[in-house]
Amino acid sequence: MAAVTLDSVTKRFGSSAAIDDVSLAVAEGEFLAVLGPSGCGKSTLLRLIAGFEKPDKGTIRLGANVVSGPGIDIAPEDRHIGMVFQSYALWPHMTVAENISYPMRVRNAQPSDVAREVGVALAAVGMEGMGERRPAELSGGQRQRVALARCLTMRARVVLLDEPLANLDAHLRARMLAEIASFRSLSHATLIYVTHDQAEAFAVADRVAVMEEGRVRQVAPPAVLYRTPSDSVVSRFAGGGAVVQGEITATFGNGHATAALFGKTWRVRAAPAQAVGPAEICIRPEDLRIVSDGSGFGATVVRVLYQGGRTVIEATSPQGTTLSLSLSSTDVPAPGTAVHLAVIDGWVIPQH
Amino acid sequence: MLWIPASRGERVAFGALLAIVALLAVVPIARLIQEAVAPGGSFDAAILERVITNPAVWRAARNTLGVSVGGVVLALVLGGAFALLVTLTNVRSKKLLVFCFMLPLMIAPQVTALAWIDLFGPNSTLLGALGIAPPPGTRHPLYGPEGIILLLGIEYAPVVFLTVRAGLRALPRDLVESAQSAGAKPWRIVATVVLPLMMPAFAAGGMLAFIGSIGNFGVPAFLGIPAGFTVLVTLIYQRLAGFGNGVLSEVAALSLLLAAFALGSLAINGWLARRRDVRVTTWMTAAPQWSLGRWRRPVEVACWSAFAVALILPFLALLATALVPAIGVPLDAGTVTLANFHFVLLDYAATRRAFINSASLSATAAMVLVFLSVPLGYSLVVRRAAVLRAVTFAAELPYAVPGVVLAIAMILCLLRPLPLLGFSLYSTIWIILVAYLSRFLLLALRPVTNALQQIDPSLDEAARMSGARFTRRLATVILPLVAPSALAGGVLVFLSAFNELTVSALLWSSGAETVGVVLFSLEQAGDSVSAAAVAVVAVVVTLAMMMVANALASRVARGVLPWQP
């Protein structure tokens, strides 16, 4: 059974729908990332699940129990959901240990159990011996760990994370991502992780839900999302590259098709039901090669972005389309160079 | 965003709190309006007409406007200049300067008035000791409109100071710096950039000073009544004191006139605040610090000399009067006595009772209001109740209307026996307590809402996620975070109630006197030495309470304690 189920949930603020008819099921123990630009409604989605907002339409279930729906509105304090806030939300007047033990003390746990669990939770996040400190004395990463530890002692089956890395320095983010992954294996909880950073979402999640303007555009494992985006929005937001207009000239039942692009015909991937005719084709940076045998089409290098081992090149086709391709940094053309490019792979975006 | 309370307990608590606010703040004012326009239950313009066509009322209204406008102008000049001085220049010991400047606001107007009377009158013990007192029998130089304007100006200059200082602190630094780089000298920048940008702050401060002036009772009662100079507030007081409850409808109509002045200014103030150009606010708001150069010492000397004349001398005069056995006796080593303090604190039942009454009324009002304000503020701010504006406005009503207006509204509401209970609170001490709760609700609520607005709402949400319910969150998360500000609000309530005269002047009864009332009666009866002793004790209590609040200052939300920098 799914741990969290949203069924046709709509939430309006004024006349605009922050969440527009969203249906989503998150499996027990799953790690779902919700990815989208700011203002796409992903935080509202989290607050609906937590119970801080009440949906205008639809139902939300935790396991088999309806927590939001017509005539039903279970208070956040009765949902037993953990949440890691962007600001961490540590109570400044309590010590680290008091912060962590708060959910247990609210449930009137035995003091001896509280002390033991706090010790376990502090050790789990690598903060042994810091129980008596105040939140003000902690670094950003340490506050983040305390917020995670608080969810541990709560033994929440579902934990929501609202942009938990947004306030951290770049070098800390990778460490905290690892921390969150180990939190998951320790707690076995279902995690819903909201972020606007595609790299974060792809790195940790089992599945990624891409949101835009209050709607979920696609939910799939990161590799599927990257390889077969369901529309141009997902394609642009989840992974780089370009979406170009082309013509499908032939289709094969095995998931392949031929497409006319930049004056030549290329073999690309397509849904089995793909029809012949005009279509949008997603071309990732890895899908292009520089060729010298005349099999490619002409393009001009406009920008070279060195990224360490790899270099990303932006080039424009004669029709004015901007493409990007990823090369090994050993042999990189200079801006202004004319090159020939070949399409070695691509994905035909399904028509709806 | 409309908020629906999630839990039953919270819904009940919030509903009860809203009902209390309505009973304390809205019902009395509504009852007053009803009494003025429809005394018998149906609309009747006769009383309103009689009041409006009475030439004595017109004279009092003209006097009210005259002294209030005069006082406001003086307050704008004093408060504005002082705000510019301490915010924009490198004058030294700013903390102490601000504390002294704020004192007239914290000390009761009737105490200030008494101190000035004791200082400059023909019977002045202090001037007498120096041999420069006016000759006996001459009219007191402060009696009449000029004295009232002077004291109103000094009393409300701190109000203007606070709004202008807040404005100067929000002054974008880049606007000043670009004028500097254009070659303008400080004086020119003040005249062409700072002052034009401060106009909204001056307007707001002026409006607040005006509202305070038209409702002020202590100053015109002490300086106007002896000179036969009547303003609306003293007219209402004299009618009611002279003719009793028979003239209730008439004074209700009169106070409606006064309330209209106050609420009109409040509306204009709100309108101006909304029109204020918010586009100039930026994060770069450190006010420039201009060096006074060689003028620093002369300016400081002038400042402290002004304080010496306006603050220290009057209180020395008060103290001197309190230390002589009878008015007219010169103060020297042979005459100095503590008998007056002994008399008012221990021997004389009315004053002894008044101190106990005022202290317990103020403490009770402070505790009840703090207790109400924390859950109410929580529901309003953290839970984003849609009624926040309405409740804040309701709490502002009884504070903005003149005290006599509120007192008459309370008489109208509580004169008849209470429904269900069957007894009346009128002419008991309880009517004063209810009036205090109504009048000072805003003083307790505002620090709490200020503090709550500075708290990240996710601190409350995290507690909800942890499973904590309404009362638990209130006790373990919200209360510890806002406690210093709530306590400071309680101190403000205590100070205001302890120094209050306007409300209790109409509501007191034998056995239920307040400090303000006995001070007024003693002075009217000519017992100036006892009045001075009462006033000295009141000042000492006020200063002590300010010190208590100072101890909390570092943990109180910014802007709660007016005298703190």
Overall description:
The complex is a heterodimer of chains A (352) and B (565). Chain A is of the alpha+beta class. Chain A has helices at 42-50, 96-106, 111-124, 140-154, 170-187, 198-204, 222-227, 232-237, and strands at 2-13, 16-27, 31-35, 57-62, 65-69, 72-73, 81-84, 158-162, 190-195, 207-212, 215-220, 242-252, 256-261, 264-269, 277-283, 288-291, 297-307, 310-316, 322-328, 338-343, 347-348. In chain A, strand 10 and strand 11 (215-220) form a beta hairpin. The longest helix of chain A is centred in the middle third of the chain and has 18 residues, at 170-187. Residues 1-5 and 278-283 of chain B have low confidence and may be disordered. Chain B has helices spanning 8-37, 46-52, 55-88, 94-106, 109-120, 125-130, 145-169, 173-181, 186-215, 218-223, 232-243, 248-275, 296-322, 339-347, 349-382, 388-400, 403-414, 429-453, 458-465, 470-498, 504-507, 515-524, 528-552. The longest helix of chain B has 34 residues, at 55-88. Chain B contains 23 helices and no strands. Chain B has 565 residues and is mainly alpha-helical.
Structure classification of chain A: alpha+beta
Oligomer: heterodimer
Query: How many E-type strands of chain A?
Result: 21
The sequence of SSEs of chain B as H and E is HHHHHHHHHHHHHHHHHHHHHHH
Low-confidence stretches of chain B: 1-5, 278-283
Radius of gyration of chain A: 24 Å
First and last CA, distance of chain A: 30 Å
Helix % of chain B is over 70%
Q: How much beta of chain A, percentage-wise?
A: 35-45%
- C-alpha-based Rg of chain B, rounded: 24 Å
Order of helices and strands of chain A: EEEHEEEEHHHEHEHEEHHEEEEEEEEEE
Biggest chain-to-chain interface with counts: A-B, 30 and 21 residues
Shape of chain A: globular
N→C terminal distance of chain B: 35 Å
Shape of chain B: globular
Q: Would you identify the regions of chain A where 5 or more consecutive residues have pLDDT less than 50?
A: none
Summarize the main sheet of chain A: 6 strands, mixed
Number of helices of chain A: 8
Could you estimate the helical fraction of the residues of chain A in percent? 10-25%
**Proportion of beta-strand residues of chain B:** under 5%
Number of strands of chain B: 0
